Amino acid sequence: MAPLSHSPLSSLAGKRLLLGVSAGIAAYKSALIVRLLKQAGCEVRVVMTEGAQAFITPLTLQALSGEPVRTSLLDPEAEAGMGHIELARWADAIVIAPATADLIARLVHGMADDLLTTLCLASEAPRLIAPAMNQAMWRHPATQRNVKQLATDGWQLIGPAAGDQACGDVGPGRMSEPAEILEAVTQSFVTKNFASPGSASASAPHVVVTAGPTREALDPVRYLSNHSSGKMGYALAAEAAAQGARVTLISGPVNLPTPQGVERLNVKPPYRCTKHRLSRPPKRRCLSAARR
Ligand SMILES: Cc1cc2nc3c(=O)[nH]c(=O)nc-3n(C[C@H](O)[C@H](O)[C@H](O)COP(=O)(O)O)c2cc1C
Q1: Probe ligand 1: pick from 102, 103, 119, 129, max atoms within 8 Å of CB?
Q2: What spacing in Å lies between the alpha carbon of 114 and ligand 1's midpoint?
Q3: Residue 92 CB less than 6 A away from ligand 1
């Protein structure tokens, strides 16, 4: 399972995910992505490019997703009711993993020459993409131009990672691991639902979480403190925000990113949370995190 901090998997339950798979060596990992999405409670439908079927069979992804896998745009049976538009409207989000250099180039140019590119053009859902390719292909100016353009067009890039490659090279271009892709998808829903602090509805409960260590000065140089990492409080704040609460996180000195949709107040020296907690009383609900 992905780490709890900033990864409220509950935000994926019931979501409809369209997974696009293109013809890269990392296509075998798409089986694990389907498994993870299903475990997180998503409905998953898979669309493969023609080339992807040389790397992993539609039958495998059909068995794992529990849904027929679509591979062809010009399919008279599936298109009896304009299936590609229906599928584009069905998706709460589109995730392409792995995305080849070729597919990325086609997406950048708005091409609709197969089912996957057509769906991407016809959908208004959030779109995430995990590039996967040889390091030289990734570094090529054409690919770099293309991924920049994708980001400008609203695609959320996941990775790629760097390291050993199937071809024997070492460098950037490896597809991010399935667990990281799941984390990115989860985050995209949290971000979408609770994009900024204060975006929860006015009637939402207000949750106050304290996290991180306190410090009690003994003299101008020395202090008494504890081993709190702040992780538990940050995870609780992330989950509360994902559930729709208005969240204020009163934080001691820790090096953790602020969860999406959470208002963070950094406690100033001498790092005592009590004053903040009492001066900002929540109207409807209060939660004070254990400091672990
Ligand atoms: C064995 C093999 C592995 C490949 N791996 C990759 C890859 O990891 N990334 C990539 O961008 N292209 C890779 N290619 C090239 C793509 O398969 C090729 O560009 C194809 O046209 C992409 O089709 P698609 O984008 O429609 O799926 C590979 C080709 C072969 C023969």
Answers
A1: 102
A2: 15
A3: no
Q: What CA–CA distance (Å, rounded) separates 227 from 290? A: 12
Query: Can 273 be counted among the known catalytic residues?
Result: no
Whether 22 lines ligand 1, by a CB cut-off of 6 Å, is yes
Strands 127-131 and 156-157: parallel
pTM for this predicted structure? 0.70
Q: Is 247 helix (H, G, I), strand (E, B) or coil?
A: strand
- The answer to whether the CB of 90 falls within 8 A of the CB of 133 is no
* Of residues 112, 116, 87, 92, the one with CA closest to residue 27: 116
Q: Among 6, 2, 3, which Cα is nearest to 262's?
A: 6
- Mean pLDDT across the chain, nearest whole number? 85
C-beta of residue 20 within 8 angstroms of C-beta of residue 116: yes
Q: How far apart are CA 95 and CA 29, in angstroms?
A: 13
Among residues 182, 141, 147, 228, which one has the least CA distance to residue 29? Answer: 182
Domains of the chain: 9-193 (3.40.50.1950), 206-279 (no CATH)
Q: Which residue has the higher pLDDT, 6 or 161?
A: 161
Q: Output Rg (C-alpha) for the chain, integer angstroms.
A: 22
Compute the average pLDDT of residues 161-179: 92
- Helix boundaries (H) for the chain: 30-39, 58-65, 83-90, 101-108, 115-122, 135-139, 141-152, 178-193, 231-242, 274-279
- Nearest atom in ligand 1 to 103's CA: 25
User: 47 CB less than 6 Å from ligand 1?
Assistant: no
Cα 133 from chain centroid (whole Å)? 21
Element (H, E) at 93: strand 93-99
